Design the sequence.
């Protein structure tokens, strides 16, 4: 049954969380309202305490301390809060024949042609030499300007239309139009015409944000679709929004932790960055962020820190890798094994293994763990479906599951089915988001 209050809050989360920084900030703000404290502001922890650890404003680990010895393991919900997008380069602003552009580099797996000729917004931060940080969000308000990437008119696209879909929009052509200037009317009419439009844009940026051109070198600006999450369909059963991979699972995981009561086992929600490019970097799951955060928790418990306690806590844990799965697409049914596909409205998706072509790079969950979860969800009347991404030879994908499994814990991918995954606008079912939330709440009682 659809939880309308949850869905409305989820859509607001998406609208205010177009970047991983914005998502992390929302999660921390909600955590503090729910009684969580910054771990670095406390020296000791006991059963029932709630703390969080954040890394570079782009990854968050939240803990509800249980009454049992943490070495006996934790219940972990692990999601990622980054999504495919375009990133602004370090020296981005240029003028070409009276049109001003921002130079970009795409992030994660995208179909480049999907990003042209649609309204786009700019989100992010600019760090200035004086120590201040400027928050940027342009293109979301009704009176904001939006930005766009141009494409070739069909009348002149004969060569383009013969190229492969992967090639006919080169990555270097995904540059954002941010302004223009009228060309001079005659030779020598405007001696200052060169870069006049760029200078005008720089003047507007400095006036609005106090940002100079050199400040782009210490900026983190992301290009995302402009606009809000919307109900889709006459029956309003679906949600159309940017970034639902994997914010549909991150939001419901965090919300489940906020609503759980302290129990015997320590419960954790982990929201990390960089999954879409291999979980790399200081804020990705492949880093030591999570184990370092856990070490800080253990160090504040009565028994104190030991490396053995840390290793046992990780090895004895249960984790749901809260990540999305491809929804069955009736218009492209040949890409799916229908008996092993996930359907919109079918409930949370259990994906036993990920990877591609012969399970390469897979995390493969143990059946003993899966049956415990099946029993748990059946007892709590939560709808779920067992599925894989698509047909064996069609490709594949991965999640953070294999990086958690390296510690020896039980891990299973469990998330929301998404149609048009990695497109600028993705589709999910309200029913599935509701059931994912119910499943995550039940999991935290293990």
Sequence:
């Amino acid at each position: 049954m659809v939880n309308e209050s949850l869905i409305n809050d989820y859509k607001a989360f998406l609208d205010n969380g177009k970047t991983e920084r914005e998502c992390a900030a929302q999660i921390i703000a909600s955590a503090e309202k729910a009684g969580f404290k910054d771990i670095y502001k406390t020296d000791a922890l006991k059963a029932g305490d709630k703390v969080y650890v954040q890394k570079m404003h782009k990854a968050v680990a939240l803990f509800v301390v249980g009454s049992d010895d943490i070495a006996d393991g934790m219940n972990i919900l692990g999601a990622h809060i980054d999504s495919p997008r375009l990133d602004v380069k370090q020296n981005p602003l240029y003028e070409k024949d009276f049109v001003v552009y921002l130079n970009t580099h795409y992030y994660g797996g995208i179909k480049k042609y999907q990003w042209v000729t649609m309204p786009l917004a700019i989100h992010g931060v600019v760090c200035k030499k004086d120590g201040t940080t400027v928050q940027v969000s342009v293109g979301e308000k009704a009176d904001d300007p939006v930005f766009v990437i141009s494409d070739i008119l069909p009348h002149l696209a004969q060569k383009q239309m013969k190229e492969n879909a992967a090639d006919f929009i080169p990555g270097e052509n995904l540059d954002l139009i941010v302004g223009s200037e009228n060309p001079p009317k005659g030779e020598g009419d405007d001696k200052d015409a060169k870069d006049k439009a760029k200078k005008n844009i720089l003047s507007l940026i400095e006036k609005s944000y106090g940002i100079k051109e050199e400040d782009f070198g210490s900026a983190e600006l992301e290009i995302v679709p402009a606009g809000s999450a919307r109900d889709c369909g006459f029956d309003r059963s679906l949600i159309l929004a940017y970034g639902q991979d994997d914010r549909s699972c991150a939001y419901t995981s965090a919300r489940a932790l906020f609503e759980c009561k302290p129990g015997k086992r320590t419960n954790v929600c982990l929201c990390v960055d960089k999954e879409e490019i291999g979980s790399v970097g200081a804020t990705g799951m492949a880093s030591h962020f999570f184990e370092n955060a856990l070490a800080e928790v253990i160090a504040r418990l009565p028994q104190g820190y030991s490396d053995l306690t840390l290793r046992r806590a990780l090895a004895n844990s249960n984790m749901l890798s809260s990540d999305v799965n491809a929804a069955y697409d009736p218009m492209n049914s040949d890409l799916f094994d229908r008996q092993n596909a996930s359907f919109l409205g079918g409930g949370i998706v259990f994906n036993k293994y990920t990877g591609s072509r012969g399970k390469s790079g897979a995390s493969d969950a143990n059946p003993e763990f899966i049956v415990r979860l099946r029993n748990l969800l059946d007892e709590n009347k939560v709808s779920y479906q067992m599925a894989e991404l698509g047909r064996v030879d069609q490709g594949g994908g991965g999640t953070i599951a294999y990086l958690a499994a390296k510690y020896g814990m039980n891990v299973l991918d469990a998330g929301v089915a998404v149609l048009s995954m990695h497109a600028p606008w993705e589709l999910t079912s309200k029913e599935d988001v509701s059931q994912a939330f119910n499943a995550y709440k039940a999991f935290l009682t293990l």
